[in-house]
TrEMBL record:
Lineage of producing organism: Bacteria, Pseudomonadati, Pseudomonadota, Gammaproteobacteria, Alteromonadales
CDD domains (alphabetical): ATase
Organism of this sequence: Aliiglaciecola lipolytica E3
Pfam families: DNA_binding_1, Methyltransf_1N
Function in brief: Involved in the cellular defense against the biological effects of O6-methylguanine (O6-MeG) and O4-methylthymine (O4-MeT) in DNA. Repairs the methylated nucleobase in DNA by stoichiometrically transferring the methyl group to a cysteine residue in the enzyme. This is a suicide reaction: the enzyme is irreversibly inactivated.
GO MF terms, alphabetically ordered: methylated-DNA-[protein]-cysteine S-methyltransferase activity
GO biological process, one term: methylation
Keyword check for Cytoplasm: yes
InterPro entries: MethylDNA_cys_MeTrfase_AS, MethylDNA_cys_MeTrfase_DNA-bd, MethylDNA_cys_MeTrfase_DNAb, MethylG_MeTrfase_N, MGMT, MGMT_N_sf, WH-like_DNA-bd_sf
Alphabetically ordered keywords of this record: Cytoplasm, DNA damage, DNA repair, Methyltransferase, Transferase
Miscellaneous comment: This enzyme catalyzes only one turnover and therefore is not strictly catalytic. According to one definition, an enzyme is a biocatalyst that acts repeatedly and over many reaction cycles.
EC class name: transferase
Name of the protein this chain belongs to: Methylated-DNA--protein-cysteine methyltransferase
Amino acid sequence: MNNQSEIYFEYLTTPIGQLEICANESAITSIYFSNVQQQYAQTSELTHEAAAQLTAYFNGNLTEFQLPLGSAGTEFQQQVWQALCHIPFGSTCSYADIANQLQNPKAVRAVGAANGKNPISIVVPCHRVIGKNGTLTGYAGGLDRKSWLLALEQKVNGTISKR
């Protein structure tokens, strides 16, 4: 992450709760579900663009985000988050699939931990990772939201397919 001094915030109301979008001068740094809205939000063109793309996603009109991302994390977390970005819209995969993709098949738990620390909800689609047996597993935003997001993508895409 850049050591930029300006931090921008924008809040977006969605069908599954309020999102807090954070950015620095050059990239989106986090998108979290939030129950608290600051009295004052300092927005930017980048937070406006992220809000517009997220709105289009929730309306079923966007299947791929085009935003500069700049979240802080370890090298391994960055690798996992990059792998998440390659899960196609409307598809799911398991933690083991991600570990295998990273050529580290024993890192299933570490992949799960990195997935759980993903700071950019929805845009970095950690909601598309499910248990190896096909069950919904942990999601920082809650399993109800995860289920809702997968159902939205299924509706838009026609079906959810396992990669």
